[in-house]
Amino acid sequence: MNTVFKLRINVRGDLLNKGFWDSYNVWDLHGEVLVRVDDEVEDDSIEEDNITDMIHDACGFMNVEDNTNSSEGNEEPNVHATKFYKLLENDHTELYPGCTKVSKLSFVVKLLHLKCLNHWSNKSMDELLIFFKEVLPKGSFVPKSFYEAPKVLRDLGLGYTKIDACQNDCIHDYVNVQSCPKYGKSRWKSEGHKGKKVAHKVLRHFTIKPRLQRLYMAKETAKKMRWHKEENIDDDVLRHPSDSIEWKSFNERHPTFSTKLRNVRLGLASDGFQPYGNMSSNHSPKCPGNDIDVYLQPMIKELKELWDGVETYDAHLKSNFLMCVALLWTINDFLAYGNLSGWSTKGKLAFPCCHKDTQSVSLRNKLCYMGHRRFLPINHPWHRNRVLFDGKVEMGAAPCPLTGDEALMQLQDLGNVTYGEVQK
To answer: CA 92, 95, 98: angle at the middle one, nearest 5?
Structure first.
C-alpha cells in the first residue's frame, strides 16, 4: 500500500512470496497516507558494506567470482580480463594480517569516498597515507600516496581520461600541443596562447570499451548478451530492440557484423544542462553549442576502434573473441539535435525532415511553420478545407527526407571545416 519503507532486496522478496495486494486498484494520484512503521523500517546504514556488490552494480553485472579455467579446451582470460579478476580478488585480501573488517580494495574505495565528501586536498591525503603506513602493521596494503590510490579504480574500468581544452574549445592531447585556431601554438598550460592568459577546461572522457567488456566477463550477463539471437521470437511483437526496423535494416546492410551474435549495438543518449532548472548547480550553464563536435572527438575515435573490434573474454563460453560494436541510435531532444547533426533547428528551414522544403511564415518576430496537411493521405478531406486552416487549398506532397548519401553530398560543399569557435 506504499506505506512502509524497505530495502529493495526485501521488497523483491515480499513480492515473490506474497505478490501484490489483490484489492489494490489506486494507480495514480495515490491517496495513501504515509506512515512509518518502526518494526518494519530498515536502516540502510545497518547493512554492512559489500564492496564487491558495489563494483558489480557499477559495472552492470553479477556473479563473476567463479571464473576458473581448469577444464581442457577452455581459453585463459586475456590480459585485460585477468587484470580485472585479479583486482576483484583484492576484496578478499586483508588490509594487513589479521584484519577481518577491511579489505585491500574496500580501504581504497572508502578512502577516496571520504576524500570526495570532505573535499580533502591531495596533499592532506598523502600525509594521511604516510601516517597510516606508520601506525598499521608491517605488510599492510596501504597506498604510498594519493597518486597510487585511484589506479585501483582505473584498473576496474571505473575511471576516466582527462583531456585538456582551452576556453576556445580547442582540445590538446597529452604529448603534442595542438595549434589553437585562434591563438596559434604555444605552451598554453603555463603561458596561455601567445603569452596570453587563457582559461582552460578539463574534459572527463569515460571510456566505453571497458564497460562493454565487463558485460562479457560475467557469466550471467555474457549469456544474456546472446538472448536477441538465441531466444527471441520473431512474431512481429516489439519486445526487444532487435525487433525494431532499425536493427533489422542494419543487419541487412552489414551481414558480416550481424552474423556474429556477440557483437554489440549501442544507443547514444545526449542531453544538455538546464540553466534555469537548478541555479545552485556547480556546473556552468554555458553550453558549447556547435563546438560540441570538439568534445565528441574522443568518443568518435573510440567508436571507430570498437567498430574494428576489441579482444574480449567471454566468461560463459570461457573463450576470447573479437567484439565489434556499432552505434545504432542517437537519442536527444530537438535542440541537441541541431548541435549534434549540424542542421540548424532554428530559422526558416528548421525541420530536418522537410529540409529545403520547410514551409514557414513570419509573424512579427516569430516564425510559424505551416504545410502540415502535406503529410495527410492524398484523398484526405482536409486538403481542400479552407475554413479550418489558412484559407488555402493544400495539395502538395510530403517532402522526401534526405538520404545519408544526399546529406554527405551537401556536407562536401562546405569544404574544410575547422573545429572550434573560429568558424560559424
So the answer is: 90
The reported pTM is 0.63
Per domain, the residue ranges of the chain are 8-46, 161-204, 343-412
* Cβ atoms < 10 Å from Cβ of 210: 19
What is the C-alpha separation between 63 and 49, in angstroms, rounded? 17
CA dist 190 and 116 (Å) reads: 27
The Cα diameter of the chain in Å comes to: 90
Strand ranges inside 113-206, DSSP E: 161-166, 171-172, 200-205
- Residue 47 CB: number of other CB atoms within 10 A? 10
Q: Which cell is 134 given?
A: 606508520
Question: Are 155 and 113 a contacting pair, CB within 8 Å?
Answer: no
- Contacts (Cβ under 8 Å, ≥6 apart) of 353: 399, 401
DSSP 196: -
Task: Answer whether 263's CB lies under 8 Å from 228's CB.
Answer: no
Give SS3 for 264: strand
Q: Which among 148, 94, 95, 157 has a CA at the least distance from the CA of 122?
A: 148
The one-digit pLDDT tens for each residue of the chain (424 residues) are 667 888 888 888 888 888 877 776 655 555 555 454 444 444 443 334 455 555 554 444 444 444 444 444 577 777 766 766 776 676 667 788 888 788 877 888 788 878 877 888 888 888 988 898 888 888 788 888 887 777 766 666 555 677 777 766 766 553 344 455 554 544 334 344 444 445 566 677 778 888 888 888 878 888 889 999 888 888 888 989 999 999 999 999 999 999 999 999 999 988 754 544 444 455 556 667 777 777 788 889 899 999 999 999 898 888 899 999 999 998 888 888 888 877 888 888 888 888 888 988 888 888 888 888 999 998 899 998 988 888 888 888 899 988 888 888 888 887 776 655 555 5
Cβ-Cβ contacts under 8 Å for 60 (sequence gap 6 or more): 211, 214, 215, 221
User: Could you give the CA distance from residue 192 to residue 147 in angstroms, rounded to a whole number?
Assistant: 27
Tell me, what DSSP letter sits at residue 236? S
**Sequence letter at residue 316:** H
How far is it, in rounded angstroms, from Cα 104 to Cα 95? Answer: 5
**Cα separations (Å) of 33 from 4, 25, 102, 203, 245?**
10, 15, 42, 46, 46
